[in-house]
Design goal:
Structural class: mainly alpha
Largest sheet: 2 strands, parallel
Distance between the termini: 32 Å
Helix content: 40-55%
CATH class: Mainly Alpha
Shape: globular
Radius of gyration: 17 Å
Strand order of the largest sheet: 1-2
CATH superfamily: Hypothetical protein, domain 2
CATH architecture: Orthogonal Bundle
Length: 194
């Protein structure tokens, strides 16, 4: 008999969302380029649905140099104008400008901490925070952890990364495991050796 795996509700029936949930969301990230990718995507999401951004991910990858923060930090006004006409991404000048600004701040953090990943993981002593969520209603939009990180990041020059966006980033990069305890991924991620 085929066993049906129970997953979180939020991916719905969208195959790309399901694949993202099943393979990426909540997996601990320690590679800086992947961290930067999620910062770009999460800040682009502000005020929009994750589904909207996820379906434009390839466009963001092409628009932002395969999420290379060194290259994005050198983007000029000409690049901003080019991106304002790029239908593959959300054409919001403030978000595009913030992405370039965030790339510069990202590089400064990397210079100070060795890796951006080391900086972000230090807030949780290198250990994933287990949400132990029993229903979607149990997942907060903001936590004290996200507020503290957002405040620190703003002081370091990041923008479009308020506590809600930062919390989404923590969830995406596995710093927080907010899969439902009934979801097969919750158990896989809590028993995986890191």
């Amino acid at each position: 008999m085929l066993k049906i795996q129970k997953r979180c509700v939020w991916p719905g029936e969208d195959l790309l969302m399901i694949r993202y949930h099943d393979r990426e969301w909540g997996v601990p990230v320690h590679r800086d380029r992947k961290m930067f990718e999620f910062l770009v995507l999460e800040s682009a999401q502000a005020g929009l649905s994750w589904k909207t951004i996820l379906h434009r991910r390839d466009g963001y990858r092409r628009a932002f140099a395969n999420f290379d923060p060194d290259r994005v930090a050198r983007y000029s006004q000409r690049d901003i104008l080019r991106l304002m006409h790029d239908a593959r991404i959300i054409r919001n000048r403030a978000k595009i400008t913030a992405t370039i600004k965030n790339a510069k701040a990202f590089l400064a953090v990397r210079e100070e901490w060795g890796t951006f990943s080391a900086y972000l993981w230090h807030f949780v002593d290198g250990k994933t925070v287990l949400g132990r969520r029993r229903s979607e209603r149990d997942i907060p939009a903001i936590t004290p952890l996200a507020e503290g990180i957002s405040k620190d990041m703003k002081q370091r020059g990041f923008s479009f990364l308020g506590p809600t966006v930062v919390y989404a980033h923590l969830q995406a990069t596995g710093i927080v495991n907010d899969h439902m305890v009934s979801c097969f991924r919750y158990h896989q991620l809590t028993t995986t050796k890191k």
